[in-house]
Specification:
single chain; about 625 residues; alpha+beta; Immunoglobulin-like; 3 domains; 9-stranded mixed sheet; 8-stranded mixed sheet
Length: about 625
């Protein structure tokens, strides 16, 4: 019996010691990615994973050599032998566009125009369509809901031959939390008060505290709960990089009443410490010292939530370049922070899609390529499904439970629908974002109205963020509304976004006791492979992103290789290569997105490479 127990113990220890690899990536270039399946075969064991609606997949496997098979609609479309999975994090993006697995163009356009529910793309008509598929019973007839309308449809002013680049859009910003006297004065206007009633959000009664730890260090990214005399949590939030936490005891109450502050208490870091006597520190310059020790996690998470309806067409192509530049520069500056990025693009009910969600990942190339794939279209009436997008951005991106900076940029030009269920979804999203410590930073584009502006200000204020607005100074897009209240000097949007990311994630990350490898960007520590599949061959290149040398492998002897930037300028070219391997030095190239082309037997395949040097 004792030998059996010993064998079980040894077996258990052996299994526990097997190194695992987390593999994630995307299947692109194929219609209906959910009909695709990836099989990983090691010896006689086969594991499989099925991508979601945008082709994203994730699976955990023991490290080692695998034969990888890709099937679409149960038919094998490609196989690669002896693929090595060695590092704990491995990204594999597979591009199948050369295999013509999408339906005919006319059929695809028809599908894009008609939704599952039978409604057509709203860009063909200004007539408002009442949505009932996500409405909850609210006691109010949805047909009686009155929503603002666009006075005219906006059109994309850019020609197809225009190739936007970063550093062109201009913007300003204003942080109402830092100008509270001005904010209070603004809210005295009866029209502004009515906007609070419209959205059911009343950011008037604020408790502001600054927390320090037992060593007199800023207590940053700590979870704080405000509790009333009935032991009920009435608000939860997370302190920012300066140890400041904003608590809203009655954010959704129109008839505010005065609390007996001495009956309130706060708990810090999941009840690690309860503080009852904190009233003298509310809205004062006096810091509140706790008996805790600051232990922030060196991880930065950034999400981009973007309106992709037709009215955004005049700016969305520029925004793609701006967001790519922001991701690149943030990665380079914050070398002691692991950085995860993700995105949600959204339209409206009845369009070709409602949302497209890319979960947070350590590979910025995945996010950059996802953003670059999107195009504006649909919409038609003014409101869009922003409430659904924010809800999914909070609940489906995979935010960590760590004490770390979290930022959500929200790019839009229209409000959500004004039915009760949509407004409730917005309020619930605010509550959850504040609880998780996600700072929402709205970026408003051309076409917004006063009601949308203040809803965005409410999102920013209640989650500890600030309001950003695109301006007319760049001469790009349609006219932009002047902000209400204070405004800043105009900056380039990409510079402003980088500045805000650095500000909201500021900390002594490099001074902490970290693993020596933590000073190297995390995307350099993981193994990343880009696989482009042709009809008779394939090409892989890695790493992606790359900072010095990119290794390119061909399953056949490639005849021609060319690498260009997004404007078509050739950075590298080689004819009559006739080899299966190539190493290219990119250290002198500017940071940005490049396209790798390779030709074999008159078939050219291509994939995107992100340079971040």
């Amino acid at each position: 019996m004792k030998y059996l127990v010993l064998a079980i113990v040894i077996l258990g220890y052996s299994n526990a010691s097997i190194k695992k690899s987390v593999i994630e990536g995307r299947i692109v270039g194929v219609y209906n990615q959910q009909q695709t399946k990836i099989y990983f075969k090691k010896l006689h064991k086969i594991d499989s994973v099925q991508p979601n609606a945008i082709g994203y997949y994730k699976i955990e496997l023991p490290s080692g050599a695998y034969d990888i098979t890709v099937k679409h609609a149960h038919k094998k479309v490609h196989e690669i032998k002896n693929f090595q999975l060695l590092k704990p994090q491995h990204a594999i993006n597979i591009n199948l566009s050369a295999l013509s697995l999408s339906p005919a163009v006319n059929e695809y356009n028809y599908l894009a125009k008609k939704s599952v529910s039978g409604r057509y793309d709203r860009s063909e008509s200004l007539a408002p369509v009442m949505d009932i598929d996500v409405m909850e019973s609210s006691g109010i007839s949805e047909s009686k809901a009155i929503e603002p309308k666009r006075t005219a449809m906006t059109k994309d002013k850019l020609g197809d031959d225009v190739k936007p680049s970063s550093g062109q859009l201009t913007a300003g910003h204003w942080r109402d939390l830092d100008e509270w006297a001005d904010w209070t004065k603004t809210n005295e206007d009866i029209g502004i008060k009515n906007l609070q009633k419209t959205w059911g959000i009343f950011p008037n009664q604020l408790y502001k505290l600054q927390l320090f730890d037992k060593n007199n260090e800023l207590l940053s990214f700590a979870q704080v709960a405000l509790i009333n005399h009935d032991k009920k949590v009435i608000w939860q939030s997370v302190s920012n990089q300066d140890g400041i936490v904003y608590l809203w005891p009655q954010l959704f109450e129109i008839a505010a009443f005065t609390f007996n502050k001495h009956e309130l208490k706060i708990t810090v870091n999941e009840k690690t410490q309860t503080i009852k006597d904190f009233t003298n520190y509310i809205n004062a310059k006096k810091p509140l010292k706790t008996n805790l020790e600051a232990k922030a996690t060196p991880l930065l998470e950034i999400a981009f939530i973007v309106d992709a309806t037709g009215s955004m067409g005049d700016e969305i192509r520029y925004l793609q370049s701006e967001l790519t530049d922001v991701i690149n520069r943030v990665q380079k500056r914050n070398r002691c922070l692991q950085i995860k990025t993700g995105s949600v693009f959204y339209k409206d009910h009845g369009d070709d899609y409602l949302t497209r969600v890319l979960p947070l990942s350590y590979n910025p190339a995945t996010t950059v390529n996802f953003i670059g794939e999107q195009a504006a279209g649909g919409g038609g009436d003014f409101p869009e499904a922003i409430d659904v997008a924010i809800e999914q951005g909070i609940n489906q991106l995979g935010w960590s439970n760590q004490h770390n900076p979290k930022i959500m940029f929200l790019v839009l030009d229209a409000p959500p629908h004004q039915d009760e269920s949509s407004k409730k979804r917005m309020r619930d999203a605010i509550t959850k974002a504040a609880e998780l410590g996600i700072r929402i930073i709205p970026i408003t584009a051309s076409g917004i109205d006063k009601s949308t502006e203040f809803l965005m200000k409410y999102l920013a204020i209640s989650t500890g963020g600030e309001y950003v607005y695109i301006t007319d100074d760049s001469k790009i897009g349609n006219s932009h509304m002047k902000p209400t209240g204070g405004e800043s000097k105009v900056s380039l949007l990409n510079n402003l976004m980088v500045k805000l990311v650095n500000q909201y994630s500021d900390g002594n990350w490099c001074n902490q006791e970290l693993n020596p490898n933590d000073s190297i960007p995390y995307f350099e520590q993981q193994q990343t492979t880009e696989m482009i599949v042709g009809k008779t061959w394939h090409m892989t290149f890695m790493p992606n992103p790359v900072v010095d040398y990119v290794d390119i492998h061909f399953s056949k002897e490639a005849e021609k290789i060319k690498i260009t930037d997004m404007k078509g300028n050739v950075l590298y070219a080689k004819d009559n290569h006739r080899k299966t391997d190539l190493k290219v030095n990119v250290q002198s190239w500017h940071s940005g997105v490049y396209v790798v082309y390779a030709t074999y037997n008159n078939e050219t395949i291509s994939g995107k490479l992100l340079v971040m040097n």
